[in-house]
Automatic annotation (TrEMBL), chains A, B:
Molecular function terms, GO-annotated: formate-tetrahydrofolate ligase activity
Binding of ATP, residues: T65, P66, A67, G68, E69, G70, K71, S72
Record CDD domains: FTHFS (cd00477)
Keyword tags: ATP-binding, Ligase, Nucleotide-binding, One-carbon metabolism
Record organism: Halobacillus seohaensis
Entry protein name: Formate--tetrahydrofolate ligase
C-alpha cells in the first residue's frame, strides 16, 4: 500500500473555487489561500440565518490504543460515502497540531483513500490559525509581565499569575520554567510554564465564540491571576481585548478544503480532547450545517473525552445538538483492551475481543445516557479474521445496536456506503431532546462527580487539598455555574492510562481546578495528565524531508 | 491628515491577479493568499535566469532619532514615482515584526500616501512567514532538549547550548530563563533565553538562502552548541535538517502585494538591522530584479547598520551589487543630532541643523567608501522652514552631492518625481565595482576593526575577555573566513545610544561573538544591545481595536 502522502500526490484536487461554487458560495463569501484552500467569511452565517440546518453526525470512538482506531479516516470516509449517495455532505474537522505531527503521528488528516487535502499544508502551517492563537496567547503573557515590570499598578501578584505561555510543539522542557531572570532590565522573576497551544484557553475561546464580538467579550473576561489582595484580574483591566481580537481576526474564519474524493471539508480550530475540549470551532460546525444537508464532525479520542465535551460544552455554547453518533472501533484495539499486546495482534483471538468489548459497551451506554441514537463503525484492518468480525457484529446485534464494517482507508467512500445508509436511517430515529450529563446549576463538585460516575464509570472522586482550595476560590468568585472541561488520559476510562478495557470502582483524582472564564468552563486536571506533551526518543520529524524536486517525504 | 489605516481603507487596491499579470507572471508563477496577497514561486527565477536584471536602488538613512526619518515611506514613494515616470519599478521590503507593531510603532508598512497594502495584513500575520520561522527555530530547541533528556548520545553539554528559543514579540521577561525545571519528567534544567524571531539565525538563513536546497544545506550546518568534550554540534548530527526545511518550505516563497498607487511590492523576510543583518530576502531581491527595470529596496536603520550589512553580507551571498544608494534624512532628525530635544523641534534652528548635519556627512562618506553613487532624499515635514531647507540643500550642493526634497507621505509618488529622476541619473554614474569594507580572508578582529573605524568612525575596538575566548574557539573551528554581522544600537554611530551627531575617537566594545554557521556570518554583540526588545509602559497595542463592522483602529 502507498503512503498517505503518495496517495495524496496521486489524487486530483479540484480548484477550491469549484468546491466553493458547488456549495453555492459567492465570491464575497470566501478568500483563496493558495489554489486549494480558502477562508470562509462570517457573513455566510448572517446570510443563511433563516435557512434550515443540516443533520449533524458526531463521530467518536472507544478509548484509543497504540493499535489506532482511524476515527478521522472514518469521519472523512463517511462524508465521502454520503456524497456518493448524492447527499450534500460537509465534513467538519479540527486543525492538526504541529506537536504530534513532529512528534509521534507524522500527520493528522485522515488516511489512505479517506484523507483531506492538501494534506501537507493541513499538517504543517495550514492558514496560520494556530500560529495566530499562539501569538495572541503569548502577547497577553508579555503584556502581563510588562505591567508587573512597569510599576504594577494593578498589584498583580507574580506568584499568582495563572495565565501561561504556549507553543504549538511538544516540548517537555517548557513545562516548568522561570522567566524574568538576569536583573532589573530583564523583568520580574517568576515561575511560569508553557502549555501546547491546542490545550490553551485562547484556543478554546476561538472555538467557542459565536462571532467576532463574542470573541472580544470572551477575551476581555479572561482571568489572568490574582492581585496581592487576592482579587481576580481580567484582560479588561489590562485593556488589551481589542489588540487580542485584532490578532485573532483572520483566525476566526473557518477554512475550506476538500477530501481526496472532492467532498468539501471545513477544518477549523484544534483543541486536544484530553487536555482541552476537543472539538472543532462552533463557527465551523454552524457554517457546515448551513452549507450541507449532512455534517460529519469529529470529537477527539473516546466518547469519555471529546464526545462528552462536545455534548456538554460545545452544544450548550452553540444551541444545537447532534442527530446521531458514530462510535468507531477496531478489532485490533478491542483485542488490546482485552489484554493482548501490540506484538500479539496478528493472532486471531475471539477471547481477547470478547474481553475488550466491554470498553465499547461503556461508550454505547454513555451515548444512550445522552438520549442519542448511534451506529457502530468497525474500521476493518487487513488481518481481522472472519470469525472475529462475525463475533463482533453478532454481539452488536445482540445489543440491539446498528453496526457496519467499513473499509474507507483502502476504498474511500465506497468502503463506507453501508455505514452512510445506516447513519441516515439513524438520524431519523432520534426522539426527544438530548440529555446533558449535568445541569449548569449543579455545584462544581456535583458536575465533576456526575461526569466521573456516569461517563467514566468511576466509583468515587477525590479532590486534592490544592483542588479543594481552588474550589473555594472558584465558588467565591462566582464561577460555579460554568460547565466542566475534564483533562484526563485518553487511554483509559479512568485517570490511570494502564487501566484498559472497562475498569470498575476506580477513583478519579482531581488535582487542579482553574477557571477559563473567557472560554466559559472550569478545567479539572485529573491523574498525571500534562498540558504540554513531550517528544519520543525518535521523533517523527527525523523521517521528514523535502526532496530536490520539492516533494515531501515522511508525512503519513 | 487622516491616519494610515484610514488612508489605506480609502484607497482602491487592484486584485493581486492584475498586479501579477502586469508583471507578466503566469498562473503557475504564483498562488493567491486572499484577494490582495500572493506567494511567488521559485520557478520564476529559473525561468528568467537568462533575462537581464533591473537596476537595484538601495535606500538607507542617517542614524534614526525619535523624530523619525520615514525611510520605508520614501522607499515606497520612490517606487511609485518611478512608475509614474513609466519605469517598471518593483519595491522590495522586509516583513514587519509583531514585536514593534504591538510595542511602539503600531505598524511598519510605509505611511500616508506611500504605503504598501493591505497594511493591516502586512502588519499582522501576513502570510505566516515569521510564524514558520518561529516554529522551525523552537522545534530545533525542542529537538535539542529532547536529545539531552533521552540519553544524550551526542554528549551535548547543557551549559553550552548556544541555540536559543524565539518569539516574534517584545518580551523582556524571556531574555533570560531557566527551562527543564520540575523534576525528571520535565527535561534537563538549563539556562536559556528567547530572542525576537527577527534577530534569529533561522531568519537570517531564510533571507540569505538562494533556494530550497541551499536552505537545507544551511540548516544542516547550524551550530547549536558544544559537547562535554568541547566539540561543536550541528543540526546534521541531530538529523533534523529535512523537517526544518519542510517547516520553512512555504516561507521561502516571496510575497507579492501592491502600494497605494498599485506599484508592485515584494515583501519577504524581516531581520532587524541592529541585532541582525537587516535586509529583505535574497530570493525576493533577485525576483524583483527579474520582474522590474528598477528595484527599490531598503536596509534597516542607518547606513552604519542595514546598508553596511546589505553591502558586505547580502551582496556577497547573492553575487550582485546595487547601482545607487538613496540616503534619507529629515530636518527634524538632523536638528536632534544637533542637540535639540523633541519638544524643541517646532523651533527653526539652522544652528542645530548645521551641527547635526555631521551625522549625514559620515553616512555619505561611508557610501563613497563602497564606491557607490548616492542621492540624498530630504523627507519634508510640515514644520520645516524654507530657511532650513535652503541651508540643507545648499550644503549638499557644496559637497557635490545630488539632493531632492520629497513629499511622498502627503502626495504619494508625485511627491518623489524629482528624486526618481535624480536616482535614474545616478544609476548611470556608477563606475567600477563596489568595494567591500573588508576581505573575507581578513581575521575576525581585522574585519570588526575595519567596520568600526571605517563605517562607524571609531577610534579603537575593545574585546571583552568573554569575546576573546569566543574568538579563540571560532578560529579553532575554522569560522574565521565568514563575514561579520554587527549588533549595535541604531541611535548612534558608536555603541552608546546617547552619542548623537558624529562622535569621534570612541571605543567600540565587543562583548560577545557567536558563529551563525548556517547563515554564514559571525554575530558580534557590542555595547548593551539586546536581542529581545521590551515593551514600553503603554504599548501601542492598547490603542488597537476591531469595531463591530470589522474595521480596525490603532494601526498607523
Amino acid at each position: 500500500m502507498n503512503s498517505d502522502i503518495d496517495i495524496a500526490y496521486g489524487s486530483q484536487m479540484k480548484p477550491i473555487s469549484e468546491i466553493a461554487k458547488d456549495l453555492l458560495l459567492t465570491e464575497q463569501d470566501w478568500e483563496p489561500y493558495g489554489h486549494y484552500k480558502a477562508k470562509l467569511s462570517q457573513q455566510i452565517l448572517d446570510k443563511l440565518a433563516d435557512e434550515p440546518n443540516g443533520k449533524i453526525i458526531l463521530t467518536t470512538s472507544i478509548n484509543p490504543t497504540p493499535a489506532g482506531e482511524g476515527k478521522s479516516t472514518v469521519t472523512v470516509g463517511l462524508g465521502q460515502a454520503l456524497n456518493q449517495l448524492n447527499k450534500k455532505a460537509v465534513i467538519a474537522l479540527r486543525e492538526p497540531s504541529l506537536g504530534p505531527t513532529m512528534g509521534v503521528k507524522g500527520g493528522a488528516a485522515g488516511g489512505g483513500y479517506s484523507q483531506v487535502l492538501p494534506m501537507e499544508d493541513i499538517n504543517l502551517h495550514f492558514t496560520g490559525d494556530l500560529h495566530a492563537i499562539t501569538t495572541a496567547n503569548n502577547a497577553l503573557s508579555a503584556f502581563i509581565d510588562n505591567h508587573i515590570h512597569q510599576g504594577n499598578e494593578l498589584h498583580i501578584d507574580p506568584r499568582r499569575v495563572e495565565w501561561k505561555r504556549v507553543l504549538d510543539l511538544n516540548d517537555r522542557s517548557l513545562r516548568e520554567v522561570v522567566v524574568g531572570l538576569g536583573g532589573a532590565s530583564k523583568g520580574v522573576p517568576r515561575q511560569d510554564g508553557f502549555n501546547i497551544t491546542v490545550a490553551s484557553e485562547m484556543m478554546a475561546i476561538l472555538c467557542l465564540a459565536n462571532d467576532l464580538q463574542d470573541l472580544k467579550e470572551r477575551l476581555s473576561r479572561i482571568f489572568i491571576g490574582y492581585t496581592y489582595e487576592r482579587d481576580p484580574v481580567t484582560v479588561k483591566q489590562l485593556g488589551f481585548e481589542g489588540s487580542l481580537t485584532l490578532l485573532l481576526k483572520n483566525a476566526m474564519k473557518p477554512n475550506l478544503v476538500q477530501t481526496i474524493e472532492n467532498t468539501p471539508a471545513i477544518i477549523h480550530g484544534g483543541p486536544f480532547a484530553n487536555i482541552a475540549h476537543g472539538c472543532n470551532s462552533l463557527v465551523a460546525t454552524k457554517t457546515a450545517a448551513k452549507l450541507g444537508d449532512f455534517v460529519v464532525t469529529e470529537a477527539g479520542f473516546g466518547a469519555d473525552l471529546g464526545a462528552e465535551k462536545f455534548l456538554n460544552i460545545k452544544t450548550r455554547a452553540g444551541g444545537f445538538e447532534p442527530d446521531t453518533v458514530v462510535i468507531v472501533a477496531t478489532i485490533r484495539a478491542l483485542k488490546m483492551h482485552g489484554g493482548l499486546n501490540k506484538n500479539q495482534l496478528h493472532e486471531e483471538s475471539v477471547d481477547a475481543l470478547e474481553r475488550g468489548i466491554s470498553n465499547l459497551k461503556k461508550h454505547m451506554e454513555t451515548i444512550v445516557q445522552f438520549n442519542l441514537p448511534f451506529v457502530i463503525a468497525i474500521n476493518q484492518f487487513p488481518l481481522d479474521t472472519e470469525k472475529e468480525l462475525k463475533f463482533l457484529t453478532n454481539w452488536c446485534a445482540s445489543q440491539g445496536a446498528e453496526v457496519s464494517i467499513v473499509e474507507v482507508f483502502a476504498k474511500g467512500g465506497k468502503g463506507g456506503i453501508d455505514l452512510a445508509k445506516k447513519v441516515i436511517k439513524s438520524c431519523a430515529t432520534k426522539t426527544g431532546y438530548m440529555k446533558y450529563t449535568y445541569e449548569l446549576e449543579n455545584s462544581i463538585e456535583e458536575k465533576i462527580v456526575k461526569i466521573a460516575t456516569n461517563v467514566y464509570g468511576a466509583g468515587r472522586v477525590e479532590f486534592t487539598s490544592t483542588a479543594k482550595k481552588q474550589l473555594m476560590l472558584l465558588n467565591k468568585h462566582g464561577h460555579d455555574q460554568l460547565p466542566i472541561c475534564m483533562a484526563k488520559t485518553q487511554y483509559s476510562l479512568s485517570d490511570d492510562p494502564t487501566l484498559i478495557g472497562r475498569p470498575h470502582g476506580f477513583t478519579i483524582t482531581v488535582r487542579q481546578l482553574t477557571a477559563s472564564v473567557g472560554a466559559e468552563f472550569i478545567v479539572a486536571l485529573t491523574g498525571d495528565v500534562m498540558t504540554m506533551p513531550g517528544l519520543p526518543k525518535k521523533p517523527a520529524a527525523l523521517n521528514m524531508d523535502v526532496k530536490e524536486d520539492g516533494r515531501i517525504t515522511g508525512l503519513f
